[in-house]
UniProtKB/TrEMBL annotation:
Protein location: Lysosome
Name this protein carries in UniProt: Cathepsin O
EC number: 3.4.22.42
EC category: hydrolase
Species assigned in the record: Gopherus evgoodei (Goodes thornscrub tortoise)
Amino acid sequence: PKYCKHWWFSPWLICLVLRHVDVEQTLQESIKRIRSLNSLSSDDNTTAFYGINQFSHFFPEDFKAIYLKSRPYSVPRYTEVLNRKETPLPAKFDWRDKNVVTQVRNQQTCGGCWAFSVVGGIESAYAIKMKILEELSVQQVIDCSYNNYGCHGGSTVSALSWLNQTQVKLVKDSEYAFKAQTGLCHYFQSSDIGVSITDYTAYDFSGQEDKMMKKLVNCGPLAVTVDAVSWQDYLGGIIQYHCSSGKANHAVLITGFDRTGSIPYWIVRNSWGRTWGINGYAHIKIGSNVCGKPSAIFILNFV
């Protein structure tokens, strides 16, 4: 096309639109930023590494404006109920091994991470309880969830509150497909295929990541919010630095953890497609609230 220039960054073929963006400047800034991010890399191949990917042609402020659209919310601090018969935590656990996690999706330029996170959690919780794994409609939540702003941002808690209060049936993705933009809300009142929730819980797990692991093992994958500013350039490895414990701006799904190596980490499913990170996933160091304040949501009851 007239405004399209191809740059080859193995394994990437990126088509950059040359209309209002100074490509050379953005790439120079990306390379400078990537060098800084990689300056703390270790020789043991565990530390996260950063490089050119599908987001390298964005200025950081543009990347944030498009992809980091999770809105803040307040939840109560978690207080553990003591259980004398509690089973010790495994060294490694991943709900993907139980076949209750759907494939990585791609939110494209829709700021609907909050909806992808919530729907992913519901899919897994339903699969754990009902032994049926279905891809449910993210677009339905984007279009219909009140107190949210569709592809312009939203809150995971607001989305679950809407689902809980209305008991709307969340239909299959094949019935209400993702369009990467906010659309008119469509209801399926006559449909006998769908998932409705009747209860959910959300807690602040700051400084209690061990208890968060217990909840993950006992309840299922956790929808969480994180600070994902540095994720723009992430390629792989375990994120330990450059990921502040400040403002949460992105919603994801934690499917498991691994404590068998020298650096324990969370296994986190993102919604930026399989070409990002580790086949669409990120590994984040457990401890010190790396990448933000750990608030988590887990589904309890369904209709």
